[in-house]
Amino acid sequence: xxxxxxxxxxxxxxxxxxxxxxxxxxxxxxxxxxxxxxxxxxxxxxxxxxxxxxxxxxxxxxxxxxxxxxxxxxxxxxxxxxxxxxxxxxxxxxxxxxxxxxxxxxxxxxxxxxxxxxxxxxxxxxxxxxxxxxxxxxxxxxxxxxxxxxxxxxx
Length: 155
Known about the structure:
By secondary structure, this protein is mainly alpha-helical. Helix content is 61%, strand content 6%. A hairpin with a 6-residue loop joins strand 3 and strand 4 (139-141). Helix 2 packs across helix 4.
């Protein structure tokens, strides 16, 4: 009885893992990881230097509160001394990076959607000319003389 249940669970798991949804999700996660590298590079290597030049090179990472009562010149100095710190500047930097990434992803998705809509409109076909059979009320080709559903003669 236990072996039958075990085989059932294994078969059920195999069926679950081979579903299209799971495979699509796995592919999405892998591509998302690769896409994350591109977005990180765009934000860190292109956008952040421009923002840094505009703001005069403000580094929020050195905004912190020392919880041990000592004064430290930088966050690195506080960490080397083993002092406890409240790193609100690092938190601000992470929020700014998140917002920049969200804006970049939004703009990319928006442009992809516009491109998709533009291509999709070109591919739309004209609706097929149809008429309704007066006997069975089925849709039939406009040029049909006999209904394929009820075989009645239609004019």
